[in-house]
């Protein structure tokens, strides 16, 4: 972690002055719990596939069992993972600010399992599949799915309403973001006093779009990410490091300054 004391103090100062905070999280915070990022997701049995070729409506039409099998494999990874110190620190943050709205690009449920309520999922969720034909939600059985026997394909379940095939509840390439989730995210950023971006480069839509709204409106922005960060704007504070280290350090500093 290369965050300096002065940066942490400044971040605490900004947070303490904010009544409404909008938080956006990306793949980085899930990766710290051992969930591979989308681009790194194809290992083992899935090595010779391209994520971009599996995550489309067309791929599902052409080979439902292959695509469903891949998402079941990813769901298995998610359910075998645990929330980390970064997820938990965000719960603590939400308890300190008057109005904290959490938006995520992640399709796992680690924020919910850490204790964050009302998470806005911009890219849907692996845990909430629905019918490909009629959109009716499908309830998955409890527990962690088994590895498919002798291969990677798994037949998707059928819709209880129309007998259509059930598809993963995530946003695929070529699909638009869920309208309600996007408008909730946009509203949260427009109404916030401070925008906190975690574990995302912020360069690609939708993260870039939300970042831009915050910047255009002159909101203070805090970015937490391990990679090289584009800095320079005066209202933008970059804390370089993993969320699981920076966020707990930030909350600890806040408690030390103002118990
Ligand atoms: Zn249906």
UniProtKB/TrEMBL annotation:
<keyword id="KW-0378">Hydrolase</keyword>
<feature type="binding site">
    <location>
        <position position="74"/>
    </location>
    <ligand>
        <name>substrate</name>
    </ligand>
</feature>
<dbReference type="InterPro" id="IPR003000">
    <property type="entry name" value="Sirtuin"/>
</dbReference>
<dbReference type="InterPro" id="IPR050134">
    <property type="entry name" value="NAD-dep_sirtuin_deacylases"/>
</dbReference>
<dbReference type="InterPro" id="IPR026590">
    <property type="entry name" value="Ssirtuin_cat_dom"/>
</dbReference>
<dbReference type="GO" id="GO:0036054">
    <property type="term" value="F:protein-malonyllysine demalonylase activity"/>
</dbReference>
<dbReference type="GO" id="GO:0008270">
    <property type="term" value="F:zinc ion binding"/>
</dbReference>
<keyword id="KW-0808">Transferase</keyword>
<comment type="function">
    <text>NAD-dependent lysine deacetylase and desuccinylase that specifically removes acetyl and succinyl groups on target proteins. Modulates the activities of several proteins which are inactive in their acylated form.</text>
</comment>
<protein>
    <recommendedName>
        <fullName>NAD-dependent protein deacylase</fullName>
        <ecNumber>2.3.1.286</ecNumber>
    </recommendedName>
</protein>
<dbReference type="GO" id="GO:0070403">
    <property type="term" value="F:NAD+ binding"/>
</dbReference>
<feature type="binding site">
    <location>
        <begin position="199"/>
        <end position="201"/>
    </location>
    <ligand>
        <name>NAD(+)</name>
    </ligand>
</feature>
<dbReference type="InterPro" id="IPR027546">
    <property type="entry name" value="Sirtuin_class_III"/>
</dbReference>
<dbReference type="InterPro" id="IPR026591">
    <property type="entry name" value="Sirtuin_cat_small_dom_sf"/>
</dbReference>
<feature type="binding site">
    <location>
        <position position="243"/>
    </location>
    <ligand>
        <name>NAD(+)</name>
    </ligand>
</feature>
<comment type="similarity">
    <text>Belongs to the sirtuin family. Class III subfamily.</text>
</comment>
<feature type="binding site">
    <location>
        <position position="71"/>
    </location>
    <ligand>
        <name>substrate</name>
    </ligand>
</feature>
<dbReference type="GO" id="GO:0005737">
    <property type="term" value="C:cytoplasm"/>
</dbReference>
<feature type="binding site">
    <location>
        <position position="131"/>
    </location>
    <ligand>
        <name>Zn(2+)</name>
    </ligand>
</feature>
<feature type="active site" description="Proton acceptor">
    <location>
        <position position="123"/>
    </location>
</feature>
<dbReference type="GO" id="GO:0036055">
    <property type="term" value="F:protein-succinyllysine desuccinylase activity"/>
</dbReference>
<feature type="binding site">
    <location>
        <begin position="225"/>
        <end position="227"/>
    </location>
    <ligand>
        <name>NAD(+)</name>
    </ligand>
</feature>
<feature type="domain" description="Deacetylase sirtuin-type">
    <location>
        <begin position="1"/>
        <end position="259"/>
    </location>
</feature>
<feature type="binding site">
    <location>
        <position position="134"/>
    </location>
    <ligand>
        <name>Zn(2+)</name>
    </ligand>
</feature>
<feature type="binding site">
    <location>
        <position position="159"/>
    </location>
    <ligand>
        <name>Zn(2+)</name>
    </ligand>
</feature>
<dbReference type="InterPro" id="IPR029035">
    <property type="entry name" value="DHS-like_NAD/FAD-binding_dom"/>
</dbReference>
<keyword id="KW-0520">NAD</keyword>
<keyword id="KW-0963">Cytoplasm</keyword>
<keyword id="KW-0862">Zinc</keyword>
<keyword id="KW-0479">Metal-binding</keyword>
<feature type="binding site">
    <location>
        <position position="162"/>
    </location>
    <ligand>
        <name>Zn(2+)</name>
    </ligand>
</feature>
<dbReference type="Pfam" id="PF02146">
    <property type="entry name" value="SIR2"/>
</dbReference>
<feature type="binding site">
    <location>
        <begin position="105"/>
        <end position="108"/>
    </location>
    <ligand>
        <name>NAD(+)</name>
    </ligand>
</feature>
<dbReference type="GO" id="GO:0017136">
    <property type="term" value="F:histone deacetylase activity, NAD-dependent"/>
</dbReference>
